[in-house]
């Protein structure tokens, strides 16, 4: 169930970003909500869980669909980012915050 | 351990093949997603437009009086220019008749609406596609004949338009009423650059720039923008200018695709 909800939420967020948020650019810059969400999710998630990587995959896929880039470009970046965050927080950093 | 390693490699190979396949059929897949996303995107686009207009009203309310005065002065100047241009127009019509020159035909246009914008690539998605007889490289303009861009990708019911500010966009342009011409290049984030202007040409800030038909990419006379600043060097044979584009996506509801020119 959470996997399906994640797909719907990320899909709506990408549409929101490309159709609503584009009207609020500052010097041509618009925040990439998917990137922000994936980073925060993987930071707060238990490093042993793979749901964050799944979210990175789905978010990247929808970003690729609604952009001009080849499909897989944002998927690769986000998945590598998610894996790196988990590796760093699993092996090298111990921060006492609540894990999802 | 060996089987586990092999499984990972196999999984990666399968994933790569899936993505290669997705890119081979990317046009059909994107078309599929755009067709069921379009109603939601339209709602978000309109909501974003009205919300940004509301906040813009609050931010500029302090300068409103000054802005109104500037626009009124500019309007008066333009009205007096129209009066003198009307005389030239009449003279032009009689000369054309006397020389029996064929009058330029108006463009064939197709109305479209913006669905979404690609934030990283300076391109937009519009709601007309193959089934509306839209094809690649058709120019896209606003109601006021301001150039927006050209169609680069056509799906069944949608098309992707590359804005003139896209870094891959370049086309010839000129200052109307003179022989001054050059090349307009996209600068990303809705910026434009007017390059290859002969160094001896006299260009000034505020000069209007429009399209030229030399390369045939766009029809002649479409408004591009105004010169914002000029870069000139004594040792270079060309000068450059930064252009303030005339198109503003946040204030545009309808676009027109030139299907024939």
Concise synopsis of the structure shown:
Chain A has helices at 2-19, 33-44, 51-65, 73-91. By secondary structure, chain A is an all-alpha fold. The longest helix of chain A is centred in the last third of the chain and has 19 residues, at 73-91.
* Mean pLDDT level of chain A: 85
The name of the CATH architecture of the largest domain in chain B is Beta Barrel
Which class do the helix and strand fractions of chain B yield? alpha+beta
Distance between the termini of chain A: 16 Å
Integer count of domains of chain A:
1
Strand content of chain A: under 5%
Explain what you see.
The complex is a heterodimer of chains A (100) and B (261). Chain A has one domain (2-91). Chain A is built from four helices and no strands. Chain A has helices at residues 2-19, 33-44, 51-65, 73-91. In chain A, helix 2 (33-44) packs antiparallel against helix 3 (51-65). In chain A, 36% of the residues are buried. The model of chain A has no long low-confidence stretch (mean pLDDT 85). Chain B has 261 residues and is α+β, with helices and mostly antiparallel strands. Chain B contains three helices and twelve strands. Chain B has a six-stranded antiparallel beta barrel with strand order 1-2-5-4-3-12. A six-stranded antiparallel barrel of chain B has the order 6-7-8-11-10-9. Chain B is globular, with a radius of gyration of 23 Å. Chain A binds chain B through residues 12, 15-25, 27-30, 32, 65-72, 75, and chain B through 19, 22-23, 26, 29-30, 33, 37, 40-42, 44-45, 47-49, 51-52, 115-121, 123, 160, 188-191, 249-250.
How are the SSEs placed, and which strands pair?
The complex is a heterodimer of chains A (100) and B (261).
Chain A: H1 2-19, H2 33-44, H3 51-65, H4 73-91
Helix pairs in contact in A: 1-3, 2-3, 2-4, 3-4
Chain B: H1 2-24, H2 26-60, H3 64-99, E1 108-118, E2 123-126, E3 139-141, E4 147-154, E5 159-163, E6 170-174, E7 181-186, E8 192-198, E9 208-211, E10 223-231, E11 238-245, E12 254-260
Antiparallel strand pairs in B: 1-2, 1-12, 2-5, 3-4, 3-12, 4-5, 6-7, 6-9, 7-8, 8-11, 9-10, 10-11
């Amino acid at each position: 169930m959470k996997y399906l909800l994640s797909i719907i939420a990320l899909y709506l967020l990408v549409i929101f970003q490309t159709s609503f948020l584009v009207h609020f650019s500052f010097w041509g810059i618009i925040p990439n909500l998917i990137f922000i969400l994936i980073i925060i999710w993987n930071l707060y998630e238990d490093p042993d869980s793979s749901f964050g990587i799944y979210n990175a995959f789905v978010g990247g896929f929808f970003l690729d669909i609604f952009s001009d880039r080849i499909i897989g470009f944002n998927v690769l970046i986000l998945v590598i980012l998610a894996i790196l965050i988990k590796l760093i927080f699993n092996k090298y950093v111990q921060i006492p915050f609540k894990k999802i | 351990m060996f089987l586990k390693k092999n499984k990972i490699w196999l999984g990666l190979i399968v994933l790569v093949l899936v993505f290669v396949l997705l890119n081979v059929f990317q046009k059909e897949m994107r078309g599929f997603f755009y067709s069921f996303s379009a109603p939601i995107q339209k709602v978000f686009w309109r909501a974003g437009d009205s919300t940004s207009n509301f906040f813009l009203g609050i931010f500029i309310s302090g300068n409103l009086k000054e802005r109104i005065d500037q626009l009124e002065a500019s309007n008066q100047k333009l009205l007096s220019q129209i009066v003198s241009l009307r005389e030239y127009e009449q003279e032009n019509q009689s000369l054309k008749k006397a020389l029996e020159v064929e009058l330029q035909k108006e463009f064939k246009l197709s109305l479209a609406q913006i669905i979404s914008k690609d934030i990283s690539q300076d391109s937009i998605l519009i709601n007309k596609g193959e089934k509306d007889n839209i094809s690649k490289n058709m120019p896209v303009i606003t109601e006021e004949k301001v150039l927006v861009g050209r169609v680069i990708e056509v799906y069944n019911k949608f098309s992707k338009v590359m804005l003139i500010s896209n870094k891959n966009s370049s086309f010839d342009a000129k200052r109307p009423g003179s022989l001054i011409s050059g090349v307009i290049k996209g600068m990303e984030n809705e910026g434009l650059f007017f390059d290859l202007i002969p160094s001896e040409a006299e260009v000034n800030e505020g000069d209007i720039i429009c399209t030229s038909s030399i390369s045939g990419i766009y029809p002649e006379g479409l408004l591009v923008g105004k010169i914002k600043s000029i870069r000139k060097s004594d040792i270079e044979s060309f000068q450059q200018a930064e252009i303030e584009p005339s198109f503003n996506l946040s204030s545009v509801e309808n676009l027109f695709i030139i299907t024939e020119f």
